[in-house]
Design goal:
Blueprint: E1 2-4, H1 29-42, E2 46-50, E3 57-61, H2 67-83, H3 92-97, E4 103-108, E5 114-121, H4 132-135, H5 142-152, E6 157-166, H6 171-179, H7 182-189, E7 193-199, H8 200-206, E8 212-213, E9 229-235, H9 239-242, H10 245-259
Parallel strand pairs: 6-7
Antiparallel strand pairs: 1-6, 2-3, 3-4, 4-5, 5-6, 7-9, 8-9
């Protein structure tokens, strides 16, 4: 049995992140060019490292670069959301296409079984590319969410989506590994901000990695009235201070191991 972590899913259908279907807005040429260049740079990513937690392996890849791994990730996400009755929040055709996924992570055990995963969208060229606007459209706080996205857009914002964890004794450990992907995601995408939306009890588990729930935003009733979805942000400039010291060290060790060098400026923090 698998447990979904982030119930929100994308609805945009564009490889180049040029905006949602039906949108009359278009991204400025410089932002679109940067997004395209970033996608080309990430296409070659296929990295793995032993996790700090023991006999687990963290893999970072792209859907086009690692199609077999991506298929397993999508299957795990589908099973997870199906078991919990929230497939209405999962546009499986869109997710499976990989079109809006810039990067994804998978956690494997010693036998190669996938125990969980999460994917990243962005960096965004337009705030309308984020699904959180749909999540808050019928809830208080939409203006606050919109203002946050717009004000941080120019400094790079990436959204973590579709996280799931296989249920069982290792569930919290796998969730902790996924939370630590904040650092390599920021490094790989060159963005300052990372954000996610999920139930508050889920995101509280991720605060150890330096993310902070924005309590100024009223919770959204999404994907149904049974849920209270909140937003969390990670900030590149403060990540080393907001993460728990032992978690930060694990993040640094895993990111260094993934990349195989010391060139990343966050390591000096």
């Amino acid at each position: 049995m698998t447990t979904p972590l982030l119930p929100s899913m994308p609805s945009a259908r564009t490889i180049e992140y040029a905006g949602r279907p039906g949108s009359v807005r278009s991204a400025p040429a410089d932002k679109t060019s940067r997004a395209r260049a970033q996608r080309r740079r990430l296409d070659s990513v296929h990295l793995s490292t032993p996790c700090a937690d023991g006999a687990l392996t963290l893999m970072a890849a792209t859907p086009s670069g690692s199609p077999e791994l991506w298929s397993r990730y999508v299957a795990g996400a589908w099973e997870s959301y199906s078991r919990h009755g929230v497939t209405a929040a999962l546009d499986i055709d869109e997710v499976a296409s990989g079109a809006t996924t810039a990067l994804f992570y998978a956690v494997l055990d010693a036998a190669g079984e996938m125990l969980g995963g999460v994917r990243a969208q962005g960096p965004y060229a337009l705030m309308e590319q984020s699904h959180v606007l749909t999540e808050w459209k019928d809830s208080p706080g939409l203006d606050v969410v919109s203002d946050l996205l717009q004000s941080r857009l120019s400094r790079g914002i990436v959204e973590m989506k579709s996280a799931w964890v296989e249920a069982g004794a290792a569930g919290r450990t796998v969730s902790a590994v996924l939370a630590r992907t904040a650092l390599p995601t920021i490094e790989l995408t060159g963005s300052r901000y990372l954000f996610a939306s999920a139930a508050d009890h889920v995101l509280r588990l991720w605060e150890t990695s330096g993310g902070r729930i924005d309590h100024d935003i009223p919770a959204a009733a999404y994907p149904s009235d049974q849920y209270r979805t909140v937003m969390m942000w990670w900030d590149r400039d403060t990540l080393a201070q907001t993460a728990k010291p032992e978690v930060w060290q694990s993040m640094v060790d895993e990111t260094r191991s993934l990349f195989g060098d010391d060139r990343h400026v966050l390591f000096a923090a």
